[in-house]
Design brief:
Elements (H helix, E strand, L loop, with lengths): L2 E12 L2 E12 L3 E5 L6 H7 L10 E9 L2 E2 L7 H7 E4 L10 H11 L5 H14 L3 H4 L12 H13 L5 E5 L7 H14 L4 E5 L3 H7 L2 E6 L2 E7 H6 L4 H7 L5
Parallel strand pairs: 3-8, 3-9, 6-7, 7-8
Antiparallel strand pairs: 1-2, 1-4, 4-5, 9-10
Helix pairs in contact: 3-4, 3-6, 4-6, 6-7
Bound molecules: adenosine-5'-triphosphate.
Adenosine-5'-triphosphate binds next to strand 2 and helix 1.
Length: 251
Amino acid sequence: MNSIIEINDLDLFYGEFHALKHVNMEIPEKAITAFIGPSGCGKSTLLRTFNRMNDMISGTRIEGKVAIAGTDIYSDEVDVETLRKRVGMVFQQPNPFPKSIYDNVAYGPRLHGISDRKKLDEIVETSLRSAALWNEVKDHLKRSAYSISGGQQQRLCIARALAVEPDILLMDEATSALDPISTLKIEELAQELKDRYTIVMVTHNMHQAARVSQQTVFFLNGEVVEYSETERLFSNPTDQRTEDYISGRFG
Ligand SMILES: Nc1ncnc2c1ncn2[C@@H]1O[C@H](COP(=O)(O)OP(=O)(O)OP(=O)(O)O)[C@@H](O)[C@H]1O
């Protein structure tokens, strides 16, 4: 498997607090990588380094390197808007804009200069189909995004992220606010999307990581304890701390 994200000796500080410690890893493209570990161990922090969302938190300092497709994303030449177009993100709470379903999906493409109605219609349909939502909303695209269920809103947020044709989709506990059926739908969707996109997901749910991902990373106190194929990590972990965590002895 080719890697798309390469992290070398990454340290991240929130002021004095050392939140990520000497992280080294390669994330394979067109696969799902899951980040697991107890609350506060740095999963979301690492995820946010991939699209420089940490830039928005004042007092954050980074040492080391994060490269995407060979480019150091923290170098001065990198345009953060372009980076965020390539690296989409979906959050724990569905956060559609207070606009119609159509306008939510068309938002990114419009921002990037697409105004042709036919082209936008095409993008909206393709993105909603990719997010497995088209059939449920195709007859009321003009309705408010708030008129659909939470699970549908989360798939709408995925469609909105896909509309700008990213390479990577980051999911930060994207199902933890959803009911089991909506969760299952998003998990199935992630499985379909992984053939076309690289997905990195933070999850509190070990069963979800085991069900959905190909690679799993276990974090503890800002460090990567173990990183391996999901099946191996859950069936035959090499580190005692991983074993203790996955068997429910802490966290
Ligand atoms: N903006 C911030 N300023 C200061 N400290 C922060 C900030 N964001 C996170 N932290 C701290 O950094 C550590 C890692 O947080 P992070 O949110 O990455 O953990 P996490 O593993 O994703 O946790 P959870 O599973 O609870 O979301 C925690 O100790 C947290 O308190």
